[in-house]
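Researcher: I'd like a candidate sequence for this fold, 118 residues long. If you have to choose between options at a position, lean toward the conservative one.
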């Protein structure tokens, strides 16, 4: 209590800041729901504000040069390890997925490539 009496201006500013932060948490600004996700950037490309898409997923466009090469390697290894060796459709993966579907009676795995997904 002595600090409040010794520094009334600081206490008032701290109280105001706390009040504004509480208001921000209780009443966040509305997010645009009719857009598929939006990123507003400055003239130099610096992101200023972003909104998620209708499902709440943040989609921020980047160039391959902006992503770690290790991430790209792991993405290719996980999603489409034959990416550099097929013409956009991996016939072996399609046959495997079809065979699993026929023999199991339900879809076990997919056969799509990254090219097909994009």
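Model: Candidate sequence:
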């Amino acid at each position: 209590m002595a600090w409040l009496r010794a520094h009334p201006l600081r206490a008032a500013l701290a109280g105001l800041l706390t009040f504004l932060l509480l208001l921000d948490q209780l009443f966040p600004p509305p997010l645009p729901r009719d857009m598929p996700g939006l990123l507003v950037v400055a003239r130099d490309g610096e992101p200023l504000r972003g909104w998620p898409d209708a499902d709440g997923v943040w989609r921020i466009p980047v160039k391959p040069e902006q992503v770690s090469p290790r991430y790209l390697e792991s993405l290719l290894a996980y999603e489409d390890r034959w990416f550099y060796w097929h013409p956009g459709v991996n016939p072996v993966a399609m046959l495997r997925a079809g065979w699993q579907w026929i023999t199991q009676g339900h879809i076990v795995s997919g056969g799509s490539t990254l090219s097909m997904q994009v």
